[in-house]
Amino acid sequence: MSSELTEGSFRLLERVAEAPHGELWRARDAGGRTVALKLGLDAGARARFAAEARVLALGLSRRMPALVDVGFVALAGKRALAVAAGGHALPFLALEWVAGQSLDTAARGAAHRAGDVETLAWQVAHDVGQALADLHALGIAHGDLKPQNLMAEGGGRVRLVDLGLACPLGAREPGGGTPRYLGLGDRSLGDARARDLLALGLVLAELALPELAARADVLAAARQAPLPEPLASVCRALLVCEPGA
Fold first, then answer.
1. pLDDT of 151-205, one tens digit each?
2. How far apart are alpha carbons 49 and 108 in whole angstroms?
3. What's the pLDDT tens digit per position in 96-126?
4. Cα–Cα dist 93/53, whole Å
5. Neighbours of 46 (CB within 10 A)
6. Could you give the C-alpha distances from 211 to 1, 88, 165, in angstroms and in order?
7. Which of 176, 177, 194, 161 is CA-nearest to residue 52?
8. Using CA atoms, how far apart are residues 218 and 205, in angstroms rounded to an integer?
């Protein structure tokens, strides 16, 4: 039971994802809240989590998950117990649990229902646009906007998640991210703000024309594709050839 836990500790419920640098768990904290618990497994996790926690603490956007806690834990079976830094302690970042599906999964389901894809695309444009506006107003860019980092909730809202690659708005060079959504073939990538907006345009174009997802150079294909109006007007503005303009 969660009542057995001390503050800063968690009960591990389900491993959602794993990678060489860390794991993501659905967990429950001492207060009984369900959280997304990131556990760091490499030397750089402490700095990454501290940076992400800072962004989330500053952001306070309804379109992004709220920060719950950050610190260090030691694993004991299905529990992650609060400890001081050092030894075998693992850095962690606990976030509000966003129940729903990643956008790529939600889009596949919407494709079978008439009108649902267009509705989903407009919801993404509205909600993710708001999340980016909230971030950009603080001088911060997301840095890795892609369907896997957008969560479609049961009520229809879309949330922007995973700020592990967030960076200053004016950063000229990508600090990582998914090449497909970075527009690397452009003469000038512009700054991080422009890259965020270009990535949003690509996500919307793929929603409007699912066949674009199979194209290797999705940016070139999206710029030439006969996207349906009025979404086409939004995508044209986001996918301009000189994103710094």
1. 999 778 999 999 989 999 999 888 888 888 988 777 677 899 999 999 999 999 9
2. 32
3. 999 999 998 888 877 656 568 888 999 999 9
4. 7
5. 16
6. 47, 47, 28
7. 161
8. 9
